[in-house]
């Protein structure tokens, strides 16, 4: 009988909580402004990534180095050999290098007047390469032309040595060959490094409007006082609000993942040397990993909004809060800090590492994922308890 009496209040609490959950979810999902914000940002950054990668490939394929050659009659064959894919050569009789660079030319290559004679006499005639280093394309064009000139110079040296019966190996004791050992997943990590941070940012942006409205907004509309007068534990009120806010944040993150995966076949990953390694189990794992983080983001936003002085103050504080994690994660990526496995227990940092691994198809430790998710849920429980104590304070309703 005693066990039955203990279970009866619990069932009663859950039954009383269901209408509260229904109220919070209806208010959250009826807010068109919050839904538009969640959906818009969730679809915006995958579309921007796809468009940006396509633009990069198109720009790279259309990059042409335009070179003006002055005095080409001194070495007409050499000028012709410099012509090739991605390099346009214009032979000019005269011209000022500064004026030519100010036009559409990236480089100006000038032959000395006695180039042909000195070349025949083996006296190393000079070549003058004019470049405007303040131009954004100057460095690329200069490297491209210098590589062609170095190849042409090596060919001439080889021919001269062969004409005199000297083997090329005498002057070249070794031959350097560069071999790229990077894997497609490693190259993909460079391009997709920003995706985990943007997915986490989506959680903050998608739940921002709802978290402010359900806390500071209800307090200003005086509906919070009516809610607190109901025979409900404070932790149930915070939990119901957290679940409603987290549902929008998680929806935004799931939509962003779906849009990103759907746009990957359109993105020119092959041209960038990247192999698509995202699998269906990986996509499902990403969605499940973000659920505890969505709960944490929601409850922290609610707590911060309850501490604010007004609705506008809550919006300002949460806007700053949503930028701080992105700055932290980007700083870690840019610094390329090598973190120990135990760092995966920390929210945000662990989620960034797991999402990055799942995106590029690398192995992710399941025990660390479960342990990190458990730590996140423990922090959520502590935040709910903190929010419950905050609701019991009389100063809460007088704020603002």
Automatic annotation (TrEMBL):
Its main location: membrane. It is a multi-pass membrane protein. Keywords: Membrane, Transmembrane, Transmembrane helix. The chain crosses the membrane at residues 34-57, 189-212, 242-263, 283-306, 318-339, 368-388. Pfam families: ABC2_membrane_3. Residues 41-341 form the ABC-2 type transporter transmembrane domain. It is found in: Membrane. It comes from the Bacteria. This is ABC transporter permease. It comes from Microbulbifer elongatus.
């Amino acid at each position: 009988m005693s066990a039955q009496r203990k279970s009866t209040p619990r069932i009663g609490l859950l039954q009383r909580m269901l209408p509260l959950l229904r109220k919070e979810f209806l208010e959250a999902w009826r807010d068109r402004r919050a839904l538009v914000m969640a959906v818009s940002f969730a679809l915006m950054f995958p579309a921007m990534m796809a468009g940006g990668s396509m633009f990069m490939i198109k720009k790279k394929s259309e990059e042409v180095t335009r070179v003006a050659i002055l005095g080409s009659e001194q070495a007409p064959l050499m000028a012709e050999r410099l012509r090739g894919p991605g390099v346009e050569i214009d032979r000019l009789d005269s011209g000022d290098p500064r004026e030519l660079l100010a036009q559409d030319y990236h480089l100006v290559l000038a032959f000395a007047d006695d180039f042909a004679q000195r070349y025949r006499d083996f006296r190393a005639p000079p070549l003058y390469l004019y470049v405007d280093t303040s131009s954004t394309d100057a460095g690329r064009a200069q490297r491209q032309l210098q590589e062609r000139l170095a190849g042409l110079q090596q060919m001439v040296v080889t021919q001269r040595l062969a004409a005199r019966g000297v083997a090329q190996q005498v002057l070249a004791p070794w031959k350097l060959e560069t071999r790229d050992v990077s894997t497609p997943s490693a190259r993909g990590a460079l391009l997709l490094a920003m995706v985990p941070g943007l997915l986490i940012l989506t959680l903050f942006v998608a739940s921002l409007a709802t978290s402010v409205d359900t806390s500071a907004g209800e307090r200003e509309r005086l509906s919070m006082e009516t809610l607190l007068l109901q025979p409900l534990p404070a932790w149930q009120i915070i939990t119901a609000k957290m679940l409603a806010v987290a549902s929008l944040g998680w929806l935004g993150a799931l939509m962003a993942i779906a849009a990103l995966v759907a746009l990957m076949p359109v993105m020119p990953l092959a041209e960038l040397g990247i192999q698509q390694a995202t699998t269906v189990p990986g996509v499902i794992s990403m969605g499940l990993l973000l659920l505890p983080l969505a709960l944490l983001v929601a409850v922290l936003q609610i707590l911060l909004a309850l501490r604010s002085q007004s609705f506008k103050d809550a919006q300002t504080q949460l806007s700053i809060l949503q930028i701080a994690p992105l700055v932290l994660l980007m700083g870690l990526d840019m610094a390329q800090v090598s973190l120990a496995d135990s760092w995966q227990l920390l929210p945000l940092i662990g989620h960034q590492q797991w999402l990055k691994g799942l995106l590029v198809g690398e192995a992710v430790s399941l025990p660390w994922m479960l342990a990190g998710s458990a730590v996140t849920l423990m922090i959520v429980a502590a935040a709910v308890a903190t929010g419950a104590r905050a609701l019991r304070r009389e100063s809460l309703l007088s704020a603002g």
